[in-house]
Amino acid sequence: MAEPLIRFVDVHKSFGPKRIYTGLDLSVYEGETLVILGGSGVGKSVMLKMLIGLLPVDRGRILFRGQDVAKMREDELRVVRRQIAMIFQASALFDSISVGANVAYGLHEHHYATMSPAEITERVAWALSLVGLPGTEAMRPGDLSGGMKRRVGLARAIALHPEVLLWDEPTTGLDPINTARINHLMRGMQRALKATSMVVTHDMKSAFDVADRIAMVHRGRIILECPKDEVRAVADPRVRDFIDGVAPPDETLDSLLSD
């Protein structure tokens, strides 16, 4: 197998007394879509934020093309963020500026010195067309539906021509039609841009729709990492219960219900 594009090596991360990772090891390969599963609060989004230096690691290494992101200075991280773009759960659009200005924001931050205003305008139009929103540059985020906001967030990310896309709960709060649309876009981005993707989601249908491989986080470590076609055959009860939506026993609740 080829060398991983991204590697988390014995990563530890805590917030005060709360330990999030106690030895995270994970590999991501070029061109694949890796879906990250796990319960609420296990640190799935934290993993993505550590990869682009928005959160520091306590210990361990995070390698992108062999370079340790965890040791990079801010100016070095800016280069990484041009190559690894994150699509945030809440879209993170600026309500005070237009859709076009939102999509152009990263270009001004990272490429302004090398791109003319006409080139930026052309790139914004290209990105919005790719996500199915041509001609929406003059609109305001407040005029958009939730699904449209997600697509504008994606347009802003792909305008940078990144190598890697990080999706943080991309379908949370969306209706089934918009969920299907976002899943279709994720698959389309992989084909059109040859991008590598890491997708954090609770949505099992979306996970199996878009993934090449699936990994699962449990109590600070990866307990599953395999092609999606092999996941349903995994015997580990922690994996089975999560996939099947089976809640662990709650002795306090059982006692109350039996009274």
Tell me what you see in this structure.
This protein has one domain (6-246): 3-Layer(aba) Sandwich (Rossmann fold). It has 10 helices and 10 strands. The chain has helices at 44-51, 74-83, 99-110, 117-130, 146-158, 176-193, 204-210, 228-231, 237-244, 251-258, and strands at residues 6-15, 18-28, 33-37, 59-64, 67-68, 84-87, 164-168, 196-200, 213-218, 221-227.
Helices and strands in order:
Blueprint: E1 6-15, E2 18-28, E3 33-37, H1 44-51, E4 59-64, E5 67-68, H2 74-83, E6 84-87, H3 99-110, H4 117-130, H5 146-158, E7 164-168, H6 176-193, E8 196-200, H7 204-210, E9 213-218, E10 221-227, H8 228-231, H9 237-244, H10 251-258
Parallel strand pairs: 3-8, 3-9, 6-7, 7-8
Antiparallel strand pairs: 1-2, 1-4, 4-5, 9-10
Helix pairs in contact: 3-4, 3-5, 4-5, 5-6
